[in-house]
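seq as requested:
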Amino acid sequence: MTDETAAANIKRMARVIDAMPFAKHLAMEFVDGGEGWARIRMRYQDENSTAMKALHGGAISSLIDTTGAMAAWTTAEIATPKYFGSTVGINVNYLSGAIGEDIIAEGRILKRGKEIIYTDVRVTNEQGKLLAQGSVTYRIVERSA
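C-alpha cells:
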C-alpha cells in the first residue's frame, strides 16, 4: 500500500466508525491511526455501565474488538468492495475498573499473515492507567472478481 493510499485509508476508518450503528451506540470515536495501529475512544455513558457507574465488560470487549479490527484494516483498503473482513477470535483480560470515565483503546498489529492478522489492544483511562488488555485475531480476504 502506498503512503497516499494508507493516508486515504485512515480517513475512511473514521467514517466507518461514525457510520457503524453499534459503535455509535457505544459512543466510540476514531482518534488516530497509522500503519499497523489504531486508537479509538469510548465516551462514558450510563447506558454502558453496571452498578456504581462501572463500565460494563461487554462494552470494553466491544471496544477491544473494534480497535483490533481497525488496526488490522491498516493493511488493506477499508470500505472498498475489494476486501472483506471479520473477527475470528478475541481474548480479553480485565485489569482494573473504569468508573464513570471515558476510555481509550490502542491496537497494534503483532503479525500479519496472508489473510490472518494478530493484534494486541490495550485499554487505558485518560490518565494512562491500564484497564484491560486483549488480543484480536482478524481475517481480511480479497473478494473474487
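The beta strands are 28-34, 37-42, 83-94, 103-112, 116-125, 130-142.
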